[in-house]
Amino acid sequence: MSDFDITALIHHPYRAPDGFLAPQAGVYKASTVIFPNVAAMRSRDWRNRNGYTYGLHGTPTTFLLEERLAALEGGSHCVLVPSGLSAIALVDLALLAAGDEVLLPDNVYGPSRELARNELLRLGISHRFYDPMDAAGLAFMITPATKLVWLEAAGSVTMEFPDLVNLVAAARARGVTTALDNTWGAGIAFKPFELGIDIVMHALTKFPSGGGDVLMGSVTTRDAALHERIKLTHMRLGLGVGANDAELVLRSLPSIALRYAAHDASARELAAWLGTRPEVARVLHPAFDSCPGHAHWKSLCSAAAGLFSVMLDARFGQAQVDAFVDALQLFSIGYSWGGPMSLAVPYDLRAMRGDKAYAGTLVRFSIGLESAAALKADLEQALRRLA
Ligand SMILES: *Cc1c(COP(=O)(O)O)cnc(C)c1O
Q1: pLDDT per position as a tens digit, 300-341
Q2: What is the edge-to-edge ordering of all strands in the sheet holding 199-203?
Q3: Mutate to test the pocket of ligand 1, among 160, 183, 214, 245 (most ligand atoms within 8 A of CB)
Q4: What domains can you pick out in the chain, each with its CATH number?
């Protein structure tokens, strides 16, 4: 487990309304926020949290969640958005303008790539893909037009753990802002701000929600000027979140470290077992030395998310692999991760990336909170279908 302060996360200096104390904060909902008089309305400051101005720009409930997420991530400022993907879009739109370029890792979260290829390109913002395992290569790609470098650790399908330290150093040496998609690390596996990363984006949909029932994202920073830039774009885009959803995440946050550790332990047990199976050609889990970037993971992280992929032996065709996934009883077929239910998704990487390095079909597993023994038995019966 990392040494982030779970006790501070639970004993947060929230002040209950006078005369009322309970473990959970109340839920405050508003579109209209009422000002005491016209002078107060005229002197409102949309930029900061000194007061409330309009529900879209924050309520006591969303401010509280923002503060707790900043504590989790080790940042000082945070804004909430309606999904992880909108957090990525917010960072792009706050920082980039026509003529600028953004660099994305070549294993970037798919919808981020599509955003760059469509909306960003239409706005005159170009992009190129870099190899996240090659920090020297990234340094070589940065030009005066490069305004943002996205980082992701680990890659969420192929699970490579990048050389974050040197990627960040390469960007910083050229004065380029870095933004990390920290959904996998979740504020627990490693401390991005201590590496000098400027912006941390998090799909709260995953571990912070923990239920598979909330969509939300956050953008956290340490720098006040950078936060203000993001916050102003956030306001102009109208990216509010509902207080009931914010409450669900507040309710789940105190157990995030325990859940993360449980997902991690089961995933490592199952990944190790799958690695012994003849049907499996390769286990892609950052804590295993069969995974690209394992040494980077080892030098930086104290934990891993419950996520890994296996490459099945090349003799199995896509139809057989699909039948294997269909035969799973406890694993559901679906996207996302971080919830109680285990999930499996087959990917044909050759089709996705034209990739020669991945000569077999890959199955990505998100390990939930079921018993590892039951999950193993399920995998075993489904593997028999392959033979
Ligand atoms: C899920 C996910 C997102 C997007 O989150 P949504 O809330 O589903 O939009 C972004 N990055 C990574 C790595 C994710 O896993």
Answers
A1: 999 999 999 999 998 998 999 999 999 999 999 999 999 999
A2: 77-81, 217-221, 199-203, 177-181, 146-152, 101-105, 126-130
A3: 183
A4: 38-253 (3.40.640.10), 256-386 (3.90.1150.10)
